[in-house]
TrEMBL record:
Pfam family, one: STAS
Family annotation (InterPro entries): Anti-sigma_ant (IPR003658), STAS_dom (IPR002645), STAS_dom_sf (IPR036513)
Native organism taxonomy: Bacteria, Bacillati, Actinomycetota, Actinomycetes, Pseudonocardiales
Protein family (similarity comment): Belongs to the anti-sigma-factor antagonist family.
CDD domains for the chain: STAS_anti-anti-sigma_factors
UniProt domain STAS: residue ranges: 25-121
Protein name per the record: Anti-sigma factor antagonist
Signal peptide residues on this chain, from the entry's feature table: none
Length: 143
């Protein structure tokens, strides 16, 4: 089910909810210069991956650059990885620059690293942010 919600500044956003209470919310925040930030919140799985791909496809026709903010994503399944790769193909076909922002979301970054998908997507922050003075990891994950 898709329901229309109002985002910040009256910018409409869309939400998709699954029957089991999980779900995905995508909030679009267009910039006056043309780019759009799509803030994604929730779980990207088989039930919601198509919704995410549809939202990115719709914005590919309207914006020269899309930043997909995945920092609030709690789960990224294989269908979500496939959807992100499909979004990349759609953006390339439309001549749109698609960038991903993972933030502190280990749920997203780790899946992209382990599956080798990270190297196929334009990720703004390929390395997780660390607190000042944090020691280096004992077993770092290679890029």
């Amino acid at each position: 089910m898709t329901e229309r919600t109002d985002g910040p500044g009256g910018v409409p956003g869309l939400s998709a909810r699954t029957a089991d209470g999980g779900g995905l919310a995508v909030e679009a925040v267009p910039h006056p210069a043309g780019p759009v930030a799509l803030h994604v919140r929730g779980e990207i799985d088989a039930a919601t991956a198509g919704f995410l791909a549809d939202q990115v496809d719709a914005w590919c026709a309207a914006a020269p650059r899309i930043v997909l903010d995945l920092s609030a994503v709690r789960f990224l399944g294989s269908a979500g990885v496939a959807a992100l790769l499909a979004c990349r193909r759609s953006a390339v076909d439309a001549g749109v620059e698609l960038e991903l922002f993972c933030g502190v979301s280990r749920a997203v970054r780790r899946v992209l690293q382990v599956t080798g998908t990270l190297e196929h997507l334009a990720v703004i922050d390929p390395h997780p942010p660390g607190a000042p003075g944090d020691p280096p990891p004992v077993y770092p994950v290679p890029d």
